[in-house]
Design brief:
The protein is 2% helix and 39% strand. It is mostly beta strands. The longest helix is centred in the C-terminal third of the chain and has 8 residues, at 258-265.
């Protein structure tokens, strides 16, 4: 018996409802549904591990992930410890190596998002979209933690925060949090930080979570009764699989090809020549016998004019197979696409071509940053 092919024309409006579909049968499959970049922690351009981190907050290992460690001393690393059978192969790790005082100060992780990347959320209108945040977390301390979302608008900062519970120590758990769209305040269309996410694990402040959007107060960042990481050298935390997407439910994590993930991270950070004993052999042109100049193009255009840090040890200038004397090395005026160097020294003649590099096998890299 022949079976007629079912076409969309044969299905009238309202015939199939969500209750007729198996759970998970239809998911958001649009490209780049995840607003978070490097949510699987697969890229760590700066380093895979940094030790001795105390009260200096910043970007240390996994690209785009900012840590705050104001109590205790920490090793921050890109770890191979991941949830089993979920497709992840890296995580972001905080490991306390010298105890401070639990909840004496802040220990947390944050992620910052450009305003122009969240205009589709329609904040400040009656059509503002709900968002769902999902992530995998593992820590030695069970209890109730907080995550907060901040609209950093210059017109009126806003905040919404939530609690979630880690039920089992040293066990990977997936958490899902849905936040309503903010109909009261737009997210400004800029290339600066506009939507921010804060995970707190220790904090000396806190007036409680809001669950709804409120005008910003720092007290809403924490519940005021966190388990408190940093008071023991047993304290550690792992985070991976972070996804922020439009809608009221979490879909499967969006795994992007490694090269696509890397290209997105290069907008904020580019490391040139790390660890191979050579910073790209930047070509320098001698103006005179004591001054030379070199320009290099960045691999990708960056978010804004970057800061450029060149290694200060083992820096060498060569031509004709011989090292030349450097008396001063200065970074010229960089742009989002290029940067330049001005070098004073001796041992060459005007019109010659020279090569700048660093032979430092550990720190021999140039760091170009335009982080939020």
């Amino acid at each position: 018996m022949a079976i007629d092919k079912v076409t969309s024309a044969a299905i009238t409006d309202g015939t199939i409802t969500s209750s007729d579909l198996a759970s998970g049968a239809v998911q958001n499959q649009s490209a780049f549904k995840n607003i978070i970049i490097n949510g699987n922690m697969s890229l760590a351009q700066r380093s895979t591990s940094r030790t001795g981190i105390t009260t200096t907050d910043g970007y240390y290992t996994c690209d785009r992930w900012y840590s705050q460690t104001d109590t205790g001393t920490w090793t921050i690393s890109q770890s191979n410890n991941v949830p089993t059978g979920q497709g992840f192969y890296k995580s972001f790790k905080l490991d306390c190596t010298s105890a401070g005082t639990s909840n004496a100060d802040e220990v947390g992780i944050r992620y910052l998002i450009e305003g122009q990347d969240v205009q589709h959320l329609k904040y400040g209108t009656s059509s503002a979209d709900s968002l769902t945040l999902s992530f995998w977390i593992k820590t030695n301390k069970t209890g109730t933690y907080t995550v907060a979302f901040k609209n950093a608008s210059s017109s009126q900062e806003r905040i919404v925060s939530f609690e979630y519970t880690v039920s089992s120590a040293d066990t990977w758990e997936k958490k899902t949090i849905t936040l309503p769209g903010d109909t009261s305040q737009a997210l400004e269309n800029t290339n600066t930080s506009e939507l921010e996410i804060y995970w707190y694990f220790s904090a000396a402040f806190g007036s409680g979570v809001t669950n709804t959007w409120q005008n910003y107060s720092s007290g809403y960042l924490s519940s005021g009764s966190l388990p408190g990481l940093g008071g023991s050298t047993d304290d550690n935390l792992f985070l991976t699989g972070v996804q922020l997407e439009v809608g009221t439910s979490a879909s499967d994590f969006e795994f992007l090809p490694f090269d696509v993930n890397r290209d997105r991270c290069l907008r904020y950070l580019q490391i040139i020549g790390k660890g191979d004993g050579n910073v790209e052999n930047i070509v320098m042109n001698a103006y005179t016998s004591s001054l030379c100049y070199g320009n290099f193009q960045l691999e990708k255009k960056m978010r804004t004019t970057p800061s450029v840090t060149f290694p200060t040890t083992s820096t060498q200038l060569y031509n004709d197979g011989a090292a030349r004397t450097i008396s001063n090395l200065a970074v010229g005026s960089p742009s989002a696409s290029s940067a330049s160097f001005d070098i004073s020294g001796s041992g060459w003649s005007g019109g010659e071509c020279l090569h700048l590099n660093s032979q430092d096998q550990t720190n021999g890299f140039m760091k170009v940053e335009s982080e939020l």
